[in-house]
Give the backbone structure.
Amino acid sequence: MNKFKVAFSGLAEALSHRSVLIQFIFMIGAVIVAFVLKFTMMEWLILGLCCGLVISIEMINTCIEKVCDFCSTETDPRIKSIKDMSAGAVLFSASISLIIGIVMVLNHIGG
C-alpha cells in the first residue's frame, strides 16, 4: 500500500511542474472534444494511449532534467545533449499524438 502512496505523491509532484501540467491541460481539452464528438470505444482507447504516453514521457523528461541539474550546475555539453534528447522524445510523442488526434477529429467532422 505504501508503494501506491508514493506513486500518487509522485503524480502530484509531477503535476506541480509547469510542463507536465500543460500536457495534462491538453489532455483535458482532448477529452472534452472526444465527448462532444462522441468518440467510439476504440477512439477512446487510442486517445487514452496517446495521452498516457505523452504525459508519461513528459514526467520522465522532467525527472531527467532534475537529475541532470542535481549532477551538475555547470554548463556541460553532455548534459545538454541528454536534456535535448529527452525533450525531443516529448516533442516526438506529442507530435504523433496530435496527428492521430487530428485524424480522429476530422473523421468525425467529415474532413
Q: What stands out?
A: The chain has a mean pLDDT of 95.
